[in-house]
Amino acid sequence: MSYAIVAQYKIPRSQVDVEALAQAMFRYLRLAAEDSEILSRDPTARDALIAELYANPEVKPTFMPSDVIGDNLPLAKYDEYLEQVDAAIERYTPPRSLRDRVLRYHLVAAASNVFRQYKIFYALNDHWDLEYKVSNRYQKLFKDWMHTEFPLISGRPAPQAVQERTPRTPRIQRTPLSPPSTQHHGREKAISDDEIAEYLNNPHTLLQKEFQHSPPPHFEQDYKGLWSLESYTTRMREGQVDHEFVVALEALNGAAVPMERDEVELLLKYSSLM
After folding, report:
1. Cys-Cys crosslink for 100: which of 89, 95, 128, 255, Cβ 3.0 to 4.6 Å?
2. Residue 172 and residue 210: Cα distance in Å, rounded?
3. Where do the segments described as Disordered lie (predicted)?
4. Cα end-to-end distance, the chain, whole Å
């Protein structure tokens, strides 16, 4: 998307409400994590309901904004879409059945990508410091929730407690509507600097791969364990292509969190391909 097209979605600095944007994004992340966890308990029923949902020709099995609503539309169209989808999400909250959870998860995943792209990435394209604050805030909200409320849903200890109890937790529980991973058998393969650069320059090559993050003792251990790329979003910043990655982490009980390029680079630096 060209810089001229992105410009139509920018908003003045005075109109940026960091807390409101962060809370909205956090809500999407929280609902997706909750539904993913509950649905993972009955994969047979979950997969049947997903197949039923996608058998409807009016439902697209994708969460990309260009697919769910379209590109280069007036901002009012994206606002209208988000308003309608948020209302639908409310109708399925709290979910009364697994079918409700599948529907809500689909709605949340699609809405969160539209919101992230048009209400954060493009809207704050001229205000990098505010975008950074929004990103930091919703990631902190989500991480705090994962350590406090999520264990009550999952019945498992908070992520930090899991790391302390066992050096290797079960494999990542993927979100139910994402494609299955490609299995890599045999010995783990270390990643070279050239391969890291190739991955970062071509994020799609990270999809359907699984990595083991093993940082040295003096580095942060919060994300130690298996991880995989769930999705990525591209955008233009002053003529440069920028990416945001959504990464599923074993250390967070399989929850997917957004990351910047440098964060993924650090993951890769101390990771092995499974």
Report:
1. 95
2. 9
3. 157-187
4. 34
The pLDDT of residue 161 is: 42
Element spanning 10, H or E: none
Could you give phi then psi for residue 253, rounded to 5 degrees?
A: 60, 30
248 forms beta bridges with 228, 256
Alpha helices in 149-260 (DSSP H): 150-154, 159-165, 193-201
Task: Report d(CA 49, CA 53) in Å as an integer.
Answer: 6
201 vs 244: CA distance, rounded Å: 12
Distance CA 49, CA 120 (A): 32
Please tell me the pTM assigned to this model. 0.66
Q: What number of residues does the chain have?
A: 274
Q: How many CB atoms lie within 10 A of CB 19?
A: 12
| Cα(62)–Cα(66) distance, integer angstroms | 10
| Residue in 175, 229, 174 with CA at minimum distance from that of residue 206 | 229
Contact 175, 36 (CB under 8 A): yes
- State the burial class of residue 185 (Cβ atoms within 10 Å of its Cβ: 0-12, 13-18, 19+): exposed
Sequential DSSP letters for 55-95: TSTTS-S---HHHHT-SS--HHHHHHHHHHHHHHHHHTSS-
Q: Which amino acid is at 16?
A: V
Cα torsion for 242, 246, 46, 24, to the nearest 10°?
Answer: -90
Distance, in Å, from the CA atom of 211 to the CA atom of 249, rounded to the nearest integer, reads 10
Find out whether 166 and 159 touch, Cβ atoms under 8 Å. no
**Which among 144, 124, 267 has a CA at the least distance from the CA of 199?**
267
